[in-house]
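Prompt: For my understanding, could you write out one protein's sequence and backbone structure tokens?
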Amino acid sequence: MTAQQAIDSGFGGAQRRGRGSDLTGRLAVVTGGNSGLGLETTRALRGATVVVAVRRPEVAVEAFDALDRVEVRRLNLGDQAGVHASSDEFLATGRGIGIRINNAGGMALPETRLGPGGEAQSATNHLGHYTLTNRLWPALAADR
């Protein structure tokens, strides 16, 4: 067994935890940003306004009591019509998106069918993010 050795990545502990990174004025969109890795990602985006897209916003708001600049929006990635409606609603605000993090997903879900030929895990983890990112492309391109 070979002992592990540290490598110099150029990123010390402060950078890994987001300290020293000022994202003031940037807008980030994080799917599933209300729990687990998504919540930690939302917390690490210090200074940025973060739009957190979640299935159950009424539950998500509790996770952000101590955080400023967090907006919670309803989004079910498994519902293509809902993804279209949510992206249209966001685009109507005229804001650009500087940071996009596709975090939401499910793992080892029981097989669940969504409409003709659709499957919940694939729809949420892949197709929903694909559709959302493509629909939000004008806002992503506007922030360059």
